[in-house]
Amino acid sequence: MARAEERRKLAGMTKFFQGERARVQLALLTVQLGYGVYYVLTKAAMTGGVNRFVFAVYRDCIALCLIAPMAYFFEKHLRTVMTIPTFLYICALGFTGIFLQQNLFLAGLSYTNTAFAAAMQNAIPVFTFIIAVVIKYEVIRFTKPDGIAKVIGMTTAVLGSFVMCLYRGPILLGEETVPMTDDGKSVNDMVEAHGWFASKMLDFGFDIWQIGALCLVGNCFCMGVYTNLQIPALRRYPAPISLAASSISVGALALVVTGMFSVAKASDWVLSTPGNIISVLYAGAIASGLNFTLQTWANQRGGPVLVAIYIPLQTVFSAFLGVMILNDPLFLGSVIGAILILTGLYLVIWGQRLHRQAKERECLAVPFTAAAEDIKEPLLKPSSDQRASSSYGTIPRK
């Protein structure tokens, strides 16, 4: 009996994971866990002295080696002729979504910690929605419940971003340490020596943590611009993997050119330790290659709302791994800001769901109303035999 019960349970679990919705959820869990590990490994590489331009170039080259063959073989029938407007869209995508976004994220991660950087990524859907409203891709009905939910959600998320940038508070977990480079210099010295933007911000009275927070806000904004730019770009070039590969190529080229002027020593391009090599390989193969494929597949089957709901899990995974492996500090301000951002995110998602349901009700109501007004005679006319039989009267019910 016990063995039969175990077999039934195993069969039930197997049947559950055979369902498409369960596979989508498992894929999204894998994606967020992959990002959590990516933040920890990248933070360790940055602390170990890897230049962020070098890290980004290697990551994009590895991702391009994985994505380019897929784009070439699977999207031959989708690619259109490359025109000047399409090329300009690809350049804009590569500059915002690859070059700026990665630079700002890696700078913000090196100046803060994994939990904070992952928590700030929850603001990406909100920034995306705000930009979509500004450029008229999304509509806010201010007098309807869905519009009120969207406005409150966006305001709450922006407030959470400001809290995370400007307030740290006491340490809840981990220990605060001053990151050091391989040369024994602190991040303050490194910023003043190599980062003109960071040096200017230090002159204005900002500390290292706030500079990193601003970089992460800029990273989220660039991702919002990148996501909205994809809409007109895909209309002109309806091959998503090919578009991503082209954008990565442009971004990687910009990173190489910038790195040639920013990287002081040629030896910085050599990854000397096994840990740094593993971090770069993981970033290119998993964070870019596998996660991009799984997220695209899940988006096609579950929709963007389901994908957005799983984004906060990367905060949990990265915070846990960062505290356990790197002993990163978890500040009260980060927790408060993350809660506000998550609340705003779910309010925006809820408002979008209410708006979609309202549009579906309106679409369902219009045909029936028009049919009642337009139909003047029955759609199925009686035959001649039926008309003849009806002249003898109706048959009484028994």
TrEMBL record:
The record's annotation in InterPro entries points to: EamA_dom, EmrE-like, WAT1-related
Keyword Zinc-finger in the entry? The reply is no
Mainly localized where? Answer: membrane
Q: How does it sit in the membrane?
A: Multi-pass membrane protein
Subcellular localization, per the record? Answer: Membrane
Q: Region Disordered: what ranges? A: 377-398
Q: Where are the transmembrane segments?
A: 21-41, 53-74, 86-109, 115-135, 147-169, 208-229, 241-264, 276-294, 306-325, 331-351
Cellular component aspect of the GO annotation: membrane
Q: What is this protein called?
A: WAT1-related protein
Show the taxonomic lineage: Eukaryota, Viridiplantae, Streptophyta, Embryophyta, Marchantiophyta
